[in-house]
Amino acid sequence: MLRRVAFVLGLAVLAAVAGVAPMTRAQGVDPTVFESSGDPGFDAWRSDFARRVIMAGRSPEVVRSVLSRAAPDPRVVQADQNQPEFVRPVWDYIDRAVTPRRITDGQAKRAENAALFSAIQAKYGVDADIIAGIWAIETNYGAAPLNYDAVNALATLAAEGRRRAQFEGYLVALIQMVERGYAGPTELKSSWAGALGQPQFMPDIYLQDAVDWDGDGKRDIWTNTGDALASIANYLARRGWSPGDPVFDEVRLPTKFDYALADGTMRSIAEWEGFGVTRLDGAPWSPATRALQAQLFLPAGAEGPALVLFQNFRSIRAYNPSDRYALAVSLLARGYAGRGGIVASWPRYQGALQRADMIELQQLLAAKGYDSGGADGMFGSNTRRAVRAYQQAEGLPADGWPTRALLDRIRGAPAPAVVNPIEADRDAAADLRSKASIRELQGHLNRLGFAIGPPNGLVGPKTRAAIAAFERRMGLSPTGRATTFILQRARTAVKAGR
Question: Taking the domain 421-495, which CATH number applies?
Answer without folding.
Answer: 1.10.101
